[in-house]
From TrEMBL:
InterPro entries membership: Bact_solute-bd_prot1, SBP
Source taxon at top rank: Bacteria
UniProt KW Signal keyword: yes
Taxonomic source organism: Nonomuraea jiangxiensis
Segment forming the signal sequence: 1-20
Protein known as: Multiple sugar transport system substrate-binding protein
Length: 453
């Protein structure tokens, strides 16, 4: 699930924690495998004689998912609570980590946050608790995103393979063919502007995860990290690929071909509805988000379609991802094995998966759904009946190779926002922004106790 909105507060790791972190106290505040002693459950637990695993999660259909798991499982039951979405939940988890008590047994977190908590030894490597039985249910890219080194710290649930959503009416009006390369994207943008059309897209400062993904598509490898050397990290934010991508988008901004409006705002959504932007570079969760925000209804019904993400080298296409969440086992779980059973089993049954993708709540990473003909062949209403999964999103998801995230991802995203804002203002070039970003993040890493490579 996307939910990559700007965090209210970064979850940062101190130098002391990095160099000499200690594992969380086992069992503080959790009720796993202790009988049905869980309290404050949002759900009703039907099998009261079984041990209980506590869980935090925010998916809109989590009630159904938990109920399905509890009905079908004869070993453990899940007590679910929604303590907030994204940063709201992370703040509470960080408090529990610091206190050594109060964390759930299983927690839903975005994949790019896993290293932040793993380095504090607040998550459990679940590879020994049934990984081999479910490994084939997910692709290699999905597993890489929830792994740190060879250890697995979460069960993939949903992802965000990227594509280009576009306005069919605007493309038809200005005789535009969906661009297959970024060079064609710029040419199409210029053609539309020259004909008096709207901006072709938007390069926002508040979507750093998107910018990172586009740089990775060009060949950038922002971070390299080996948990066997926890105080050392490779940081390459000003390589040529990263500079090229920033210069490319800065050039589009300077020519007036794309806007600079922050995304996920009422102003941006209003622009999408009113045809201010011809394209929306985003992920597979976007149709659900846009529909919920009022896009694709009323006068703009049936006006959207989706095409594969433009490539730098069409002979060597690279697919990238924006967003995605997982179920992780915390180090405060009294019985990590039972907690892992819940993590592996939640959102893995057919009814939960189907309900999730049918209502555009998730883009599933479980291959039982990803390969389901009903999902693959779905005629997506938002895209006027286009088989978007078959044509675009499933091939992108299958080709995605995964990413190595950093233990201080939020600081990096915030620092990226600062530099893209400077790009918008015209005070730096893309190359200069990349150099400044490299210096900022490398210095921060050193302050946190890392040796930056």
């Amino acid at each position: 699930m996307k939910k990559r909105l700007p965090a209210a507060a970064a979850i940062l790791v101190t130098a002391t924690a990095l160099v000499a972190c200690s594992p969380g106290e086992q069992g503080g505040g959790s009720t796993a495998a202790s009988g049905n002693g869980a309290s404050n459950c949002t759900n009703t637990i039907p099998k009261k004689n079984l041990p209980v695993v506590t869980m935090w999660g925010w998916y809109p259909n989590m009630q159904l998912v938990v109920d399905n798991f509890n009905k079908q499982n004869g070993e453990v039951q899940v007590c679910w609570t929604n303590v907030g979405q994204g940063s709201d939940e992370y703040d509470k988890f960080q408090t529990a980590i610091s206190a050594g008590t109060g964390a759930p047994d299983v927690i839903m977190i975005e994949m790019d946050r896993i290293p932040t908590f793993q380095i504090q030894k607040s998550l459990v490597d679940i590879k020994k608790y049934g990984f081999d039985r479910v490994k084939a249910d997910y692709g290699d890219g999905a597993w890489k995103d929830v792994s740190v080194g060879d250890a697995v710290y979460g069960v993939p649930v949903d992802g965000g393979p990227m594509a280009m959503i576009y306005r069919k009416d605007l493309f038809e009006k200005y005789d535009i063919t969906p661009p297959k390369t970024w060079a064609e994207y710029e040419q199409a943008a210029q053609k539309m502007k020259d004909a008096g059309g709207p901006q072709f897209g938007d390069f926002a400062a508040n979507v750093s995860a998107l910018t990172m993904a586009l740089q990775i598509q060009k060949g950038a490898v922002p971070f390299t990290y080996d948990p066997a050397q926890p105080s050392s990290i490779g940081i390459k934010l000003n390589d040529q690929a990263s500079k090229d991508v920033l210069d490319y988008w800065a050039g589009l901004v300077k020519k007036g071909l794309v806007g600079t409006q922050d995304q996920f705002t009422p102003e941006y959504i209003s622009g999408v509805i009113n045809g201010k932007y011809a394209t929306y570079i985003s992920a597979a969760w976007a149709p659900g988000y846009l529909t919920g925000a009022g896009v694709g209804k009323g006068e703009d019904t049936g006006k959207f379609a989706v095409a594969p993400l433009p490539q730098w080298d069409p002979a060597n296409p690279v697919q990238v991802n924006w967003g995605g969440s997982a179920f992780s086992v915390t180090s405060q779980a009294k019985n990590p094995e039972l907690a892992a059973k819940a993590a592996y089993g939640l959102y893995a049954d057919k009814e939960s998966l189907t309900q999730g993708w049918t209502n555009q709540i998730i883009f599933p990473l479980n291959l039982k759904a990803l390969n389901d003909p009903a999902f693959v062949d779905l005629k997506v209403a938002f895209f006027d009946g286009q088989q978007a999964n078959k044509e675009v999103y499933v091939p992108a998801a299958n080709a995605y190779k995964g990413v190595t995230y950093s233990p201080f991802g939020q600081y990096y995203f915030d620092a990226m926002t600062k530099q893209v804002t400077a790009l918008h203002e015209g005070s730096v070039t893309g190359a200069q922004a990349a150099d400044r970003l490299q210096e900022d993040v490398a210095n921060y890493a050193k302050e946190q106790g890392f040796t930056a490579q």
